[in-house]
Design a protein that fits this description.
180 residues; alpha/beta; Glutaredoxin; six-stranded mixed beta sheet; two-stranded antiparallel ribbon; 8 strands; 26% strand
């Protein structure tokens, strides 16, 4: 019993030290403002890309050259992504005549997205990819950390705004007001 006591004390001290190291390294105070839209330090051009749509037809980003693009990365299993869809449909309706094009890029399997899309009235192109779409998201923002993610380009194709997390009406309208 007395020989086990030092081992128990050592285990408790090691556990406490490990816990405090974990707290120091892996927990952070929440940001003062939620993740939101960030202006790009230097405007980079959006990458050219080709991804299949829901019918399997390859679609090229060059189809939307000259438009203000709202490129939304999402997935069928992502609740905030799903909540954004009606707003993006509305944005396409309201701003299409002013040269805005919403482009959805689902990071998922084509079958899952096609089945999911049957329940929504998408009025903008929905493209599908897996690793290729995640790689594309990394090009749009150098540190892709999650979904949903939306990038905004001007008519020349420069990425001027990026938004990580669910986007809301006030945010998207403010960004489009700057770009139009």
């Amino acid at each position: 019993m007395t020989r086990a006591l030092p081992l128990v004390v050592l285990a408790l001290v090691a556990g406490a030290a490990g816990f405090f190291i974990y707290l120091k390294l892996f927990t952070h105070a929440p940001p003062e403002t939620p993740p939101a839209t960030a202006a790009r330090q230097s405007a980079e051009f959006a990458p050219s890309f080709t991804l299949p749509d829901l019918e399997g037809t390859p679609r090229s980003s060059s189809e939307w050259d000259g438009a203000v693009r709202v490129v939304n990365f999402w997935a069928t299993w992502c609740p905030p992504c799903i909540r954004e869809i009606p707003l993006l449909v509305e944005v396409q309706d309201r701003f299409a005549d002013r040269g805005v094009q919403v482009i959805g890029i689902a990071i998922d399997e084509t079958e899952a997205v096609a089945e999911f899309a049957a329940d929504f009235d998408f009025n903008y192109p929905v493209l599908v990819g897996q690793q290729d779409a995640m790689d594309l998201a990394n090009v749009f923002v150098n540190n892709f950390i999650g979904l949903p993610f939306t990038a905004f380009t001007d008519r020349e194709g420069r990425i001027l705004r990026v938004h990580t997390g669910e986007i809301h009406r006030e945010q998207i309208e403010a960004i489009l007001a700057e770009l139009l």
